[in-house]
User: Fold this.
Amino acid sequence: MSSDFVCVLFVAVKIGIICYHYSSFMKKRDPEKLYPHDFLMKPIVALVPDFLTPNHFTILRIFLTLPVLLLLFWQKYSWGVPLFLFAAFTDTIDGSLARWRKQVTDWGAFYDPVADKILIGSVLLLILFRYINPYIAWAVIFLEIMMIIGGWYHRRRGDVVHANVWGKIKMLLQFFGILFLLLAVWAGLDLFVDISEGTLVLAVVFAIIALLTYSL
Assistant:
């Protein structure tokens, strides 16, 4: 493992400890309170039929994971990349829809991040070991597993813990890390491989912070 990567992880842990107390504020945040991006999503949310609930989009994201993986595995990037983008976009739809319609549920609070991890984690697993530093891949996968275990532990205790800002930033960085890598492979843009790797290192940093402030 390179010394630079070890330093990044060390700094991440230190930042996570500093930010630990901030997590208490995030856990008290009203889960139905609108985020800034919800206002941008309002026109799209308005188009969603009433019979569709936020949980439907969460379930859809889970079911889209397999065709996304198959298309990417077969290197059908002209289909796989747009489908991945759509599947990832359902994460924005279900959250905004839940907050605008006041349909935030305990089920959604737990399974929405699980659906994210299934989609993002499986795509990461498929492509990272092929194109990216394996240490980054293992770090991403290990931290995702730890967060799932932490979420399961809180659920067993009867706690409802909503995703915090660190987890959202981490997921966004993972999404862009994957997107840059897919574009690099699809379009032959070698520079995007380095950008992807740097983005995923940042995702590891925020994953550690999210783990310290959410799951533990």
User: Anything to note?
Assistant: The chain has nine helices and no strands. Residues 77 and 186 are 6 Å apart (CA to CA).
